[in-house]
Amino acid sequence: MVILIDPGHGSNTKGKQSPIIDKSMDIWSIYTEDDRFKEYLFNRIIADDVEIVLKAMGYDARIIVPEHIDVSLKERVDRVNRVCNEEGASNVILVSIHANAAGDSSSWMTARGWECYTTPGQTNSDKLANCLYNKADEYFKNMKIRKDFSDGDPDKEANFYIIKNSKCPAVLTENFFYDNKEDLKYMTSDLGHFEIVKTHVDGIIDYVKNK
Length: 211
Known about the structure:
Blueprint: E1 2-7, E2 32-33, E3 36-37, H1 39-56, E4 60-63, H2 73-87, E5 92-100, E6 114-118, H3 124-139, E7 156-157, H4 161-165, E8 170-177, H5 181-187, H6 190-210
Parallel strand pairs: 1-4, 1-5, 5-8, 6-7
Antiparallel strand pairs: 2-3, 6-8
């Protein structure tokens, strides 16, 4: 099984940042530029560590966007589907890693939580999302987990380009809200980083083992 990991957005993506961070929040500088949390940095830090842990455990994990600048959704999908064509789509999965926002980065918001998206309908993507939600329930004990059981399972559904057009099972995770102070403190803490990485790693492994 080839595990493809997509760190969302890039350094040149507009608007994917928090409001200005007060120094009293003590957010680690690896996540920030110009006194703001930057989503592209967070996504890459999480994606890189997920890849490192999976590789150390013997899995074939690959980052599809090593660049720090943004890569178009079409190019991202093309990279995924090239691997699908080489390995067989049933032998590949994609996890696209993001962080969420409720506003336009001008002010702090109240929305909170972790969630995972698939496309509408029941596919193996839903099985992968279920594995991730199971681990989210296990690790994010004191955090909000956003679910939608309208179709019988917890994942959210949307026709996001990268998960809609990839040939393999594909999910997109939104790892808390960086324009909410409580979520931001958690997701940039040592504990939050560990639990976000572990949720992805353990959820992916559960899917691979039970495929």
